[in-house]
Amino acid sequence: MVVDGSSEDVLDAIELANFDLPLFCQQFDVPVQYDPHMLDRYVVGPDDVAFLAPYLPRPIDFRFDSHGYWIEAVTR
Fold it and tell me: What is the model's pTM?
């Protein structure tokens, strides 16, 4: 999810391809005993960009100075 840093409006929701739960839990330091399915919201920072690149459906111009980025589960 991409959020405007000042208004907190959601600007984009990007579906990740081939989500690998164990790798994402490791990358985002998910406390598996607390959130085994990674259902909470997790902040994406500059150190996560290279990890996320293979899972993104298109290149993303991350602008951490003006936007917030989150990994968040969506149920359908």
Answer: 0.85
Distance CA 45, CA 53 (A): 13
**Helix, coil or strand: residue 12:** strand
Counted domains in the chain: 1
Angle made by CA atoms 25, 29, 31, in degrees to the nearest 5: 80
| Count of beta carbons in the 10 Å neighbourhood of residue 44 | 21
Q: In which domain, by residue range, is 8 found?
A: 2-71
Q: Is residue 76 situated within a structural domain?
A: no
Q: Render pLDDT for 28-37 as a digit per residue (tens, 0 to 9).
A: 999 889 998 8
CB 56 within 8 A of CB 14: yes
Establish if 18 belongs to a structural domain: yes
